[in-house]
Amino acid sequence: MNEKNTNTLMHRFLHWERTQPDAVLFTQPTPDGRVVDYTWKDVGDQARRMATYLRSLQLPPNSNIAILGKNNAHWIMADVAIWMAGHISVPLYPTMNADTAQYVFEHSNTRLLFVGKLDGKTDGWNEISKVLPAHMHVVTLPMAPATDAQQWDALIDKVQPLQEVHLPRPEDLATIIYTSGTTGKPKGVMHSFGNTYTYAMGAGDFCGTTPNDRVLSYLPLAHGAERSFVESNALCHGLHVYFNDSLETFAQDLQRARPTLFISMPRLWTKFYLGICAKLPAEQQKLLFAPPEVSNPLKKHILTLLGLESVRMAFTGSAPLPVEIFDWYRNLGLELLDVYGMTENFAYSHYSRPGQVRLGYSGQALPGVQSRIAENGEIEVKCPTHMMGYYKQPELTAESMTADGFFKTGDRGEVDELGRLKITGRIKELFKTSKGKYVSPAPIENKLTHQKVEAVCVTGPGHPQPFALMMLAPDARKALQDAQASEILQAELQTLLDSVNTALEDHEKLNYLVIVKDIWTTDNGFLTPTMKIKRNIIEDRYLSKAQNWSALGKTIILETD
User: Fold this and answer.
1) What residues form the membrane-spanning segments (predicted)?
2) Which residue in 31, 153, 312, 502 has a CA-CA distance of 20 to 30 Å to 303?
3) 392: left (phi over 0), alpha (psi -120 to 50) or beta
4) pLDDT tens digits for 517-554?
């Protein structure tokens, strides 16, 4: 790993602002159909002007300043302005509810809030606005909901760019990232400027990142994974960031970007696959396995349709991919590299190496990372990007570490002969059936991956046998409306259930599958921003129905039953 540890992302930003001022840093689509390019000079000018305004407020040094909004160019401009003014940024999810927002505002003593693009989340903002502390300043970014707060454009028009920006040291606190978590109140993970820079240099070495690279920003910037992959890499390596305007324009925005580096979650990789399968007749799909002179033009055509024809490195993470989908992409020439990391190490832990991918494994430790499996099966890691600690929670910070300085991830895992890491579940997810047997749900959920299943939760504490709750993919949900198609679908799921149960111990065998009516989303709280299930929320919603489901005597149950 490059050891230029006197540098920070702020130093790197100033380097690119000086050496390539006219290169485009951000490409931002707008709701009215326009596409706006911002050069390094543009971004520097706006960030410096906002930093001047922040300085004029005479806030205490290192004040916490929050950013609430969906990804867009001004989100990162606000972040840079906060650092230029000598303060600390606190990113917030646009889906955050008022109770969580109030907790974060109070816990972090937020002095100012930038409110950005929220799309349909104005109801949420209306509730959050009611819990704003009296002392808090509010500034709205372009595309924010209408409020009576100060507006970004109006403020920067009144001031001059800040010339002498704050130059942080690597050991200085840069940001507090509140983890969404799957249970409990969010924890404020503190990261230094050194951590963010070390990630960018390590990831850049791995990917061979250059200013010629392009990425699409669409996963939440409030999450450590997107913050590292997009913002840190862009500021450090000078690459070009394209933004996604909305879910409806995703395909168009992806094709505009034609990214060279792309990261996604299994749900989106699956949606891409299903979308192509719906467009291409079965006979044409068979040509993918024909000799290269026949199949290669079709493969290139498919990747072009997806906007992925320029991708040289593609990443996946957070959950396993169905084997048929992984193989389909590999056959197209796109090897999906599984990665593993967490907010506490700024997403810098394990990456699959090209040519060494093993399905279900997250690759080997990155340079500078040590990892081991504890006696209880827990993955423990020591990373050069490890957090400074949990904000205002020294006891919790101490509890998260071993005596010799390894972080206790809370994940269960195993390592193969090449050092590739496999995540087998969460330490605290074990539940006990009424027979006194313990069940680890994640390995069973991994076996239930299927192209027609979007999310699954295995549960059943206090019941004789575990069972699975399934949310179907959109096309499969539509099939339930047709009697014949529904019958075929349920038969497929029965085959899946039988196959999975054959591979399980007796106490793990699933009693039944339930196809749920609800659509699990981040908005309704069933999923985290990275599309992981919130097990406690799902169990609160469905466990009370389990006794009635069991009494039905069926193995495939529609929630309407």
Assistant:
1) none
2) 31
3) left
4) 999 998 888 988 778 899 989 999 999 999 999 999 99
